[in-house]
């Protein structure tokens, strides 16, 4: 039974990859809009993670489809004009930004850990400010969403906590310096 489950996960991941490629999107583009993170979407694409029907439906809805249409490899891709507006905007944004080259030599998590170990987060900062700090240290341009994703994971989420908001952005601070 486990093998069949894995096969289904791999098949759905391949189908999702087809859709992402067809529309010129990457994992982060869909993750934000369905309330997930890029690593989860990446694991789905790779077939490393099974998905619950509710998540399949959210992913399908991102493309303006139902779960059974999305799962059917013979179902035609919808026209961009028929996609939900947020998806159309994500496609336009990705066209403007381009698909980033993945630098497997760059260790974002390691660079973030260096920032955490410094005194930078003794005061509350946004993920954009943290990304800028890493960029200033020679990290290149970094999407603040990636910082938010890493800060939400263990063990960082035990060391750095959300302490409020600045506009729509969360503020992060070392737990030891955060006022309770």
Question: What's the domain count?
Answer: 2
What oligomeric state do these chains adopt? single chain
Q: Bin the helical content.
A: 55-70%
Overall 3D shape? elongated
Describe the structure.
- This protein has 180 residues and is mainly alpha-helical.
- It folds into two domains: 96 residues, lambda repressor-like DNA-binding domains (434 Repressor (Amino-terminal Domain), Orthogonal Bundle); 70 residues, Orthogonal Bundle (Arc Repressor Mutant, subunit A), CATH 1.10.10.
- It has a three-stranded antiparallel β-sheet.
- Strand 2 and strand 3 form a beta hairpin.
- It is elongated.
- The mean pLDDT is 86.
Short précis:
The chain is mainly alpha-helical and 180 residues long.
Q: Layout of SSEs?
A:
Layout: H1 2-23, H2 27-34, H3 38-46, H4 53-62, H5 67-71, H6 85-97, H7 108-117, E1 125-126, H8 127-139, H9 144-151, H10 156-159, E2 160-166, E3 169-174
Antiparallel strand pairs: 1-3, 2-3
List key phrases describing it.
180 residues; mainly alpha; 434 Repressor (Amino-terminal Domain); Arc Repressor Mutant, subunit A; 2 domains; three-stranded antiparallel sheet
């Amino acid at each position: 039974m486990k093998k069949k489950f894995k096969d289904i996960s791999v098949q759905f991941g391949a189908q999702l990859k087809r859709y992402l490629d067809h529309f010129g999107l990457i994992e982060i583009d869909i993750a934000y809009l369905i309330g997930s993170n890029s690593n989860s979407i990446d694991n789905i694409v790779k077939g490393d993670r099974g998905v619950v029907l509710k998540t399949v439906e959210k992913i399908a809805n991102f493309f303006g489809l139902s779960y059974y249409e999305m799962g059917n490899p013979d179902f035609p891709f919808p026209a961009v004009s028929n996609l939900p507006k947020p998806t159309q905007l994500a496609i336009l944004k990705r066209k403007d930004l381009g698909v980033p080259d993945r630098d497997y030599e760059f260790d974002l998590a390691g660079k973030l850990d260096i920032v955490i170990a410094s005194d930078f987060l003794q005061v509350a900062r946004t993920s954009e400010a943290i990304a800028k700090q890493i960029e200033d240290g020679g990290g290149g341009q970094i999407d603040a969403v990636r910082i938010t994703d890493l800060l939400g994971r263990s063990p960082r989420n035990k060391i750095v906590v959300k302490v409020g908001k600045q506009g729509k952005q969360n503020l992060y601070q070392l737990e030891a310096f955060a006022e309770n």
